[in-house]
Design goal:
1529 residues; alpha/beta; five-stranded parallel beta sheet; 26 strands
Amino acid sequence: TIDWFQAWPDDALEMVANKFLEDVDLDDTVREACVVMCKYFHQSVRNLSEQYIDELRRYNYVTPTSYLELILTFKQLLTIKRQEIMQLKNRYIVGLEKLDFAASQVSVMQKELRDLQPELIKTSAETDELMVKIEQDSVEVEAKREVVSADEYVTNEAAMASKAIKDDCESDLAEALPALEAAVSALNTLKPSDISMVKAMKSPPPGVKMVMEAICIMRGIKAERKPDPGGSGKMIEDFWGPSQKLLGDMKFLEYLKTYDKDNMNPAIIKRIREKYCTNPDFQPEVIKNISMACEGLCKWVRAMEVYDRIAKVVAPKKIRLKEAETELGHLMKKLNAKRAELKEVMDKLQLLNDQFEAMTNKKQDLEFNIDLCSKKLVRAEKLIGGLGGEKTRWSQMAQDLSERYINVVGDVLLSSGLVAYLGAFTVDFRQQCTQEWQKMCVEKEIPCSKTFSVQATLGDPVKIRAWTIAGLPVDAFSIDNGIIVGNSRRWPLMIDPQGQANKWIKNMEKANKLAVIKLSDSNYVRTLENSIQFGTPVLLENIGEELDPLLEPLLLKQTYRQSGVDYIRLGENVIEYSSDFKFYISTRLRNPHYLPEVSVKVVLVNFMITPLGLQDQLLGIVAAKEKPELEEKKNVLILETADNKKQLKQIEDKILEVLSSSQGNILEDETAIQVLSSSKTLSEEISKKQEIADVTQKEIDETRNGYTPVAVHASILFFCISDLANIEPMYQYSLNWFINLYIHSIASSEPSPELVERIENLNTYFTESIYRNVCRSLFEKDKLLFSFVLTIGLMKGRGVIDEDTWRFLLTGGVALDNPYPNPASEWLTERSWSELVRASNLSNLNGLKEDFAEHLEEWKEVYDSITPHSAQYPGKWEGITGLDKMVVLRCMRPDKIVPATQDFIIENLGRAFIEPPTFDLAGSFADSHCCAPLIFVLSPGADPMAGLMKFAEDKDKKSSIQTVSLGQGQGPIASRMITEALVKGSWVVLQNCHLATSWMPTLEKICEETIIPEATHTDFRLWLTSYPSDEFPVSILQNGVKMTNEPPKGLRANLLRSYLTDPISDPTFFNGCNKTDVWGKMLFGLCFFHGLVQERRKFGPLGWNIPYEFNESDLRISLKQLQMFLNDYDTAPWEALNYLTGECNYGGRVTDDKDRRLLMSLLSLFYNENLINEENYKFSKSGVYVCPPNGPYQSYVDYIRSLPILPHPEVYGLHENADITKENQETQQLFDSVLLTLPRQTGGKGKSPQEVIEDLSTDLLQKLPPDYNMERIVQKYPVVYTESMNTVLRQELIRFNRLISVVRSSLQNLLKAIKGLVVMSSELEEVFNSMLIGKVPASWAAKSYPSLKPLGSYIADLLQRLKFFQDWIDDGIPTVFWLSGFYFTQSFLTGASQNYARKYTIPIDHLGYDFEVMDAENDMPGKPEDGVYVRGLFIEGACWDRGSKIVNESQPKILFDTLPIIWVIPIKRTDTPKENSYTCPVYKTTARRGILSTTGHSTNFVMMMELSSNQPQEHWVNRGVAMLCQLDD
């Protein structure tokens, strides 16, 4: 799926803003203006983002999400800020009210105090009188009370006796009553049926009988007399009969229950007691077993016996009780009468007491009020005295806050815009944008502060001080970043190449248990989950350009609430989400490209260090090193000041809090006044301390600021080197590395008691140190550029560079139509003249064009000079120097800009800055440590391994060094090697890191987490080799020691390097040949040859068709073979040496036969007898370069050092014009690279790219002829045996038809795609982009003949070719063929040979060509008898002498010459080359190199042509002379 991010239209933006802001408390006019502003913010940042990518090549996307963030942030912050301001304002107002109240109360309280005094005196007198009266009455009351007390005593005694008797009765009765109750309740349980059952018994058991007997006795019923059933003959008493009667009575139980127990017959009771109660069988438990009914009756009988026994004892006691109670009644009556009398007297006394208490209270109240009044007066004085000074300030604050409350709408709107949109921008862009916004705010009449500052609106000074102490740089930009991080609704993603933000977050959140994770950590999700649950902060560092999709819910804060708890789903897991959780993300990348799908979910914050922030840090370091005691004192003061200000703020808050929270009258609140008083005292103490601190701080700062020039100078150097990363991805330097170097320079530079001199020493030493350290990691091509950038940077810092002149030098200004005719068109190009005209607009070069036209001859002398950069300019321009002089040179002779740049650097920085240090492996090693990898940045032809192995040998590490060439599957092996070597302290070499990009994150992790000081042997070293790659980890580059090891620039440096490195620098090898006279010279000759073949590469195709990577190993093997052959043979075996060195060692790399011819030709200059036999054998005609005489090693080094830094091309066998091409390229490369380090300048607004391409496509389609009608052509030019050219024509037209149709269809589709009628495919987009930059689209080039021309020239050339064939079709076979116009030139030449072979019946493979250069330039009167006339060829590296008809040396500054018509004559091939001729290759384009196509022909080489010459063949071979079918323009 594709994510389409489309811009919202204006009305949508307005509607959304209206909808969201409708519920915000704003005036309608302000609300409308805010909506317009929101829309304006969105659109202006969209435009700013385009400018950002144009100028700084940095991406920032503006999406609807940003817009919603803006509005929501505005709403949220506005509410918060309004509340804050209102709360503060109210506290000040309440504070002021309380102070005013206190002041107004003073006079009131003084009057009150005067009024209260007499009142108090009167009340005191009345109270005393009352006191006397109370004392008199008290005596009478006491007498009464004593009488009553005595009577009460007697009465109480009687009552107690009465109570004792009553208690005794009750305790006796307490024994009988329960038994009685139990008996009654037992009777209650009996039912009539139970009684009937007993009654029905015929012969009842003895137990039943016995119970019934006892009942009968109790009821007084007599027994029946009956004879004894035992047969004794006596009469016995039988109760069973009466019992049955008794039981038959319906009221039997009722009688028992209502039995008169108090008046029982003593005889009955006696009988019961003696006969039954003593009988063991007369027990309820025993009876229960016989009859349940009889058990209850038994219980009743026994209860009655007990009751009777106790009632007899209690009766006399009851009589005594009654008597006692009567007596008590009499006593109580008397007592109550006396009590009534006492109460009356007591009430009278109480009344007096109440009056006394009221009077006393009144007196106390008066005393209290007088005391309170006095205290309040004192408190009021305290309050007014203590806080009166604050009154003015508080009034001002309250007024300011009222204004702020009004202005807060605009300020918060601007701040929200900054938070939502501007985090990703650099300081200049941010300032530019906020200024525009504020202007717009004022225009729209939205209330806002006069000068907007996000710090003033959203910043908290106490918090900001804490941030800076935690390591946040002190400049406004960094503090704004801190505010964005703190106020954004999204989590921050900090672009932090120098690690500033990381350091700050780690220090700031340290106390909150910050967890630091990387996406490469295996358990980072677990750490994250724990932190989310416990509400601790997390820093995710070192991310790339993509984020783990798992983090999406967290970034979008997709939480949900369940049972009052917030939850979030992270991957598979659902976890609790704590509201205290904070998430920070940081990246080390300098210029990351975050696509919208990432950037909408976070707030991007650009933490790249600013010059101001860095200067402050560097100033701190230099001050700490130079004046440690002062810096220490300053750091203590910073903390103290922060603490003081924090305390003062807290105290003021406390004072206001107390004032506003105090209820009612503040003067009555003693504690509040105490708190206020002590707070004010403390506040004054702190203020005094702070005043002293401020004075000390000022003194320290004055001393410290003396070193500001050092900090400014160093800061400039840092920004110069940090911009190098735009040129090569490997040029990355960390701030830590820079600061360590800075500290080292402070320690190592020459001390001086004079501050000015010391500063000079520091700056000089540090600049040189930076140059040396950075140079060793730069490619040769960038070393001069670095010096140039340093020079310009430092001069800009001093304010001596005119920005317009500097920009003009690099770009030549903006090309516009030039209305002034060229006054020297015969020698000055139009381009140079146009640049001169534009340069005349610069302030220092005003009038240049007029002066130039007046003094043409003098200017021509400068133009023709060999060293125009050091020549004096004519007339009034004689004195111009520096960049102004270089601008004039750029216009006239751009090829000499490089030497002019060198002069400029020498003049302003010194010679040391154009002589980069030679490769020094030992020095680099000395700068490294076990945890810093050493990185060889490779360039074509560089192989550092041999040098490294030799170095390892010197360090006794050769046996333990392990190497692995990275590639598929080699990562784990490398990891194992490193793990082992860490412990052993051996060396590991990982070669070709650029081939294992997927393993690079693992390597980065190893370097950061495994190779740490505590786990690493001090002898361990990790060596890495890599070609420049964007994938190479930045952290390794920043922390490692980088080295480039490429052949040095210039022949002298190349020779010097050969002599200063192994094996020649090894005395054993240098002195190891037995033929010292031959050896020294041949060794020098071979090194010279090595330098020559390498240096020729910079001349492009003139030097070599293909730039071969000749390297140290080629030289090393050739040296060893040379020594071996000289030691083993009596005389030098030239043939063998030529073959081995030329054909094998160096020639083994050569794939082009013309290059092989050149290689052998160059070698023949050095491997020959003359080298040995001639004294001072010349390597070139000038005689500047000769073979030095035999001597010791040092004599050769000294001779090499005496050679010119910039050699003349003649030493390479080339014409001096060769330098022009090379130097023009070098100049262009220098300027292009410098421009990469600067912000790009954008032109004015012209047509949009779409309009430009639309116009261009329409124009091209109109010019493009229709396809050739092949049917008509076949009829007109049929295939005939005698004319092969018909076939050639047909084949060419088929090829051109194919090309025309591709061009036409792509242009037509492109027009449709621009209009939106068809989809813009990737192919069409490529056509669009190529046309936009004037390049031939790849889809055209795939069907086209070879061409290096830009689009405009290519189209003109194509139309010219099509016209050539159209003329052929219309007018017949041409007399002179335009050789360059053919698509497939070889087919045309074969056609010419075929015509000849068929005419003379010679086999075509026996034919060759002869060539004759005619006098005519463009046309011939008729066709030749045999062969063909061709035109359109150019010659490079030489010219055609039309007078002598030979190849001759080029004219100065003329790089290409046209050739007249050439007659190509097929002849029978002979093997002997012609005398006095040069076999010249012919190529289709200036690139010369080609590839072998399927036809067996090269895509570029056409043929060899013999041209007459008066010089030996080698002369032109070394010159690189060739003929070309077309040029690049």
